[in-house]
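As a warm-up, study this chain.
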Amino acid sequence: MLRIPLPLLILGAVLLHAQNDAVAAAIAAMQQGDLHSAEQQLQAELKTRPGNPAALAVLGVVLDQEKKFDEAESAYKRALAIDPSEPTLLNNYGNHLLAAGHVEAARQMFLRTVAVHPSDKNANVQLARLAVDRKRGVEALTYLEHLSRADRDGVDVDLLFGMALSSVRRYGEAEDHFRRVQAAKPDDFDAVYALGLAASKAKHAEQAQQALEHALELQPGNADVLYDLAVVNLQQDKGIEAMALLVRGARIAPERADIQLLLAQSAARLGYFEDSIAAWDKYLSLKPADDAAVRERAFAAAAIGKSPESALQDLAAFTQKHPTDAVGHYELGTALSASEPAQAAEELTRAIKLKPTLSAAYVARGLLSHRQGNNDAALRDFAAAAKQEPHNPRILDRLGEAYLAANHPDAALPVLQKAADIAPQDASVLLHLGRALTKAGQTSAAAGVFARYRKLDVRAGNPLHGGGLVEFLSLPPGEQQARYRTGVERTVAAQPDNVEAQVKYLELLLEDGKRQQAREVCRTILNLKPSGELLAEGGRALLEAEEYATAEEFLKKGMAAAGSLPELQSELAQARFYSAGPQAGLAERREF
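Now compare it with the structure written out below.
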């Protein structure tokens, strides 16, 4: 957590009304760093005039700087007995109490200060800092708003504003204040990290990633930054990148249960259930009493059929212990759907009754009804799930497929078209949309959709994977690259028609400078009718390798398949510039 530094003890232009030449000389000595002389001069003055409040107040400042807190305490109390409402004296005594660790007494002194001088900068800033420490953001903001406009300028005040706003979840406003702090201190870790956290909470993922990556550069071994950067990557559906960060964090801080928890959840989301189970095991070794984790581990095990009886027993035991947990009944029902469909339906129905907004339970029950030939029940459940998540393309696809099965292509069409708009590269959605268009008699439109479908790699998606991703991400970069290369070469040899693997192989060949072999692979790729995205990926690799003519061919075909995207148009113009001359490249840009 960011800390606001204690201010220097306050002197001011006119410290107290009774200031004299001896006090002024002591102040000058103190400002020159000669604390011993300043103390001697003030002690001499107080022997002559023991009731001089200015001498007592300045003596307190000097003694504080000499870390003589007990003697300073006495000086301040004597001064306050003479002049109990002087703001500078109250401020200095409050700062003294903070430095001595007497937080509540200091707060009371600053409250006395603002009672006399409501807009006093030091007192309001200190009260705001203390309120932030006590997680009272509204109170902190109240004190900060007492400051004049001029007094609000400055890094420390911006820092406090940002912290106070974050504590009341006004993250966008906090981000603005932290950005000003970071601009003033571009390599201050605390400022950069605070900016990243505020941007993340404000759902400004790109800004958060930029700030947190900078924070990670400043402190590469900081597990907090690794965790928070992983969260931001997950917000952007960058699951592999998030897992790589979490693996680093787990290696640095193996005792961090939150890292293992997020690693387990992320691995399951990507379909790496073996890795998820291993992460759950590590998490449970740290948090053995977390029943929900036992449930999730069992659900992951059931998904890949690992010790299925034990997994079912764990899920059943969880629902018995937590009978009102909707997710537990949903997961038990899903796990039972293949072996005990009737019992599975009962569990899924319980889940829906407990939590009518649990869309996953509707989908699972709909799939169960669909497999049993009860299409009306499936339609009702898919429609209920789509109502909960109207922009989820997988749910819309299920609903559209159910309408098709019920021979209602007119009802299926708008649903599947919406799914295709949301997920234009989803092969299942395009296949079902094409069928709906055909049944509706729109054969020309159907032909166009089927053409798009045929250009996709229908094997793409989120299949169940074996384990090994965490192990791979744990390797040093050189070993990762070697293993990746071996995997690509093995896949190309075993599956020569795997166009995605061929594109990765092309990239490796270009990196190695094997240009002739790369050109042969280019022919193979083009003959496999790749998607626009894969053509664009290959075109970029060729452009970087200065294979401009072939890059132009790939990028042109990529644009034809994926549409005239601005970034592709720019890259095509660059390739054209080098392959056919400046005029051709400029003409390409003018067309855009």
